[in-house]
């Protein structure tokens, strides 16, 4: 069923978008789609700090577009109805053109100021993941035959009991779970309301060795982890 949004030029429309993406990675699922481009094009400018979830989503889409159009833009003016239009009044397709060098530098500055908001959980491999990949490659060569290992990339939400929960201790309990075939990746804290933040963390698993459901049930839902963790949800599960 198609998703309907209100006018993004109003605070009500931006609030609806902010609430909609607060529990989603992208508009229609866990991967970017034409729906994200349609909503991105309908916005005349990036949502402000009053709409943190929408702002974070906007940054991800903008970054994805910028990486696919690396050339330096010089600015575009498009005639509409006999008059030239520039800036936020440019038609939707024009708004999807590459950003200028100045805009790109400003985005980089914002990224340095708030790494958590712009953290790309599906970006480059962490040092731990690279080391694990190197170990697997060495094991293949040592065995003298090629081994095919089924792997998956999993994005998990870990929710605390309340706003007084020590999120640093919570993450320590999560990362403290070590087992063969489990590799923890990037993480960030995401506001959920009323001063409460949830931990969103990536992990890479070997399918025949680790089950996310068993990981949650046997390790994250029992003491001492359960002293900090109220619940866990699998947000995205992608085969590698």
TrEMBL record:
InterPro entries noted in UniProt: eEF-1beta-like_sf, EF1B_bsu/dsu, EF1B_bsu/dsu_GNE, Glutathione-S-Trfase_C_sf, Transl_elong_EF1B/ribsomal_bS6, Transl_elong_EF1B_B/D_CS
Gene3D superfamilies linked to this entry: 3.30.70.60
Domain Translation elongation factor EF1B beta/delta subunit guanine nucleotide exchange, chain residue ranges per copy: 151-240
TM region(s), chain numbering: none
Pfam families: EF1_GNE
Domain of life: Eukaryota
Keyword Protein biosynthesis recorded: yes
Keywords (A to Z) from UniProt: Elongation factor, Protein biosynthesis
Homology family: Belongs to the EF-1-beta/EF-1-delta family.
Subunit text: EF-1 is composed of 4 subunits: alpha, beta (1B-alpha=beta'), delta (1B-beta), and gamma (1B-gamma).
Protein name per its UniProtKB record: Translation elongation factor EF1B beta/delta subunit guanine nucleotide exchange domain-containing protein
Species this protein is from: Sphagnum jensenii
Lineage, opening ranks: Eukaryota, Viridiplantae, Streptophyta, Embryophyta, Bryophyta
């Amino acid at each position: 069923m198609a998703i309907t949004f209100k006018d993004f030029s109003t605070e009500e429309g931006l609030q609806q978008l902010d609430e909609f993406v607060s529990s989603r990675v992208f508009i229609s699922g866990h991967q970017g789609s034409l729906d994200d481009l349609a909503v991105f094009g309908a916005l005349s400018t990036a949502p402000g700090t009053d709409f943190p979830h929408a702002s974070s989503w906007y940054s991800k889409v903008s970054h994805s577009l910028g990486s696919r159009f690396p050339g330096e833009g010089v600015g575009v003016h498009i005639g509409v109805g006999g008059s030239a239009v520039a800036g936020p009044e440019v038609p939707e397709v024009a708004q999807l053109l590459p950003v200028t060098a100045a805009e790109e530098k400003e985005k980089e500055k914002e990224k340095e100021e708030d790494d958590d908001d712009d953290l790309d959980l599906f970006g480059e491999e962490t040092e731990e993941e690279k080391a694990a990949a190197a170990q697997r490659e060495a094991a293949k060569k040592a065995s003298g035959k090629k081994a095919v290992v089924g792997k998956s990339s999993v994005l998990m939400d870990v929710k605390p009991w309340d706003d007084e929960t020590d999120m640093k201790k919570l993450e320590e309990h999560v990362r403290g779970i070590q087992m063969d075939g489990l590799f923890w990746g990037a993480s960030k804290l995401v506001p959920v309301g009323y001063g409460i933040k949830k931990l969103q963390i990536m992990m890479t698993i070997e399918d025949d060795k680790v089950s996310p459901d068993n990981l949650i049930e046997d390790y994250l839902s029992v003491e001492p982890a359960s002293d900090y963790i109220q619940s866990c949800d699998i947000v995205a599960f992608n085969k590698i």
